[in-house]
Amino acid sequence: TQGLGSYSSLSYSCGICGVHGKTSTTGLTGTILKELDLPSQVLAGSIINSFGNTCTYTSPYISSSSQKKIFVAETCEYQRHFMSFCPQKIILTSVESDHQDYYPTYESIRDAFVDYICKLPQNGELIYCADDKGAVETVKIAFSKRPDLVLVPYGEKADGDFKLTFGSVENEKNNFTISGYGNFSLCVPGRHEVLDAVAAVALCCCLLKTYNKNPKNYVQNIRQGLVNFKGGKRRSEIVGQFTSKSGNSVIVIDDYGHHPTAIRTTLSGYKEFYKGRKIIVDFMSHTYSRT
Fold this sequence. Notes:
The strands form three sheets. This protein has a seven-stranded mixed β-sheet, sandwiched between helices.
């Protein structure tokens, strides 16, 4: 954790945090950055398929650019590990009770996120999910302490460029609109994944502006990046496909979802994404308190 913090201090670093969606959002951000001419490096908490079955991505522009490199990393709230990180921008996906062994109350984990947000520099950008009650409350408290922060909301309830409108789910593909940038598609299931995608788009657009580039000129690149995202290790990961003896197409998916909210949203996403399929769930409990 301290090593990650020290490394982040050498770059223009962006921390992706939240109880849910950190790994997917980091992977989505990196997959978009692969399509952009920015000197970037990305570290996710798990293997990302579009990174080439590794958890890191390094842009070829790193070696040729004279500008300070961008470092995007998944930053974890457990035991306040993220307090070692030196963020210039932060994505906050969600806040609710979790890690009860360390945070016995919702307020204790919420306040940890507030402290992390307050590490942002003067006029630092905070990109947050306007659809998540805990995230909204956390941002409100942080903003009362740091009114200089630049707030960038995303989601269905957001105002501005990153207001989300869900579209149809067709041919196992999520279609959606981001108000300031148009229509996009995502080839992984779940509305929560779409929200993570909008967060990633928001961060990449903010980074383009920081590096004096107009995001409107990169919409097609961003669109391609989202289409290229195929998920991560144990994040709705398709581990097998076969045809049963009765002739039915079967997909076997491995997912890390262990928090009740994550399980609920993941299953809801599968039902919408894989319409007409029978879904069988095998649940492995992950800590007594969560179960």
